[in-house]
Amino acid sequence: MHAVIAIQYDLFVITDEVYEHIIYEPYRHIYISSLPGMFERTISCSSLSKTYSITGWRLGYVIAPSYIIDGVRKVHDFLTVGAASPLQEAAVTALNFEDDYYIALKELYTEKKDFFLAGLDRLGLKYTVPQGAYYVMVDITEFGATNDIEFCEWMACEVGVAAVPGSSFFQEEVHHLIRFHFAKNQETLARALDALENLRIKAKDKRWVK
User: Fold this and answer.
1) How far apart are CA 107 and CA 114, in angstroms?
2) Whole-prediction pTM value?
3) What distance in Å separates the CA atoms of residue 122 and residue 181, rounded to the nearest whole number?
4) Do the Cβ atoms of 190 and 118 come closer than 8 Å?
5) Within 10 Å of residue 142's Cβ, how many Cβ atoms?
6) pLDDT digits (tens, 9 = 90+) for 126-164
């Protein structure tokens, strides 16, 4: 549908493909640039950060038709000049990995996701099941908090678990969601879930739950 609209109105599509290899069954990632008539009007942006666990290196790339990529090169040259050469050399090793690496990557994050979501189920917290990446949005409506930033600050101090305010990801006034990150080892996730068992009790003391 998006491709049809882009072609109909002669639009460019800029995509974020960072989590292209961390997709959970039964979902599949489809590159919009692979659809008929879309490569010529698509600017695909991706990164090595998530797939190869090198978030601090800040290495990424853009794939687009030559008449677009020439402009991208100019912008890149003036903004960042270039990533450090040793990091680029190291990244080549990752880009040559065989398919079994990507299969193992998906299995690893699927295991973490299932473990953490099972814990949220046990605690009775409402959430949106992620189709990819390694985050989960949890609904805090039941706690009566109207400020997700304040809620996250309070939770970090009083419960010992950090989350990101959901409003960070919306243009609309959305303040009932917080985002947890589960790309941690199982021991850390288990400790976080244990701490969250006290969430409702501590929230009552805060007088958010009536």
Assistant:
1) 10
2) 0.88
3) 18
4) no
5) 14
6) 999 999 999 999 999 999 889 999 999 999 999 999 999
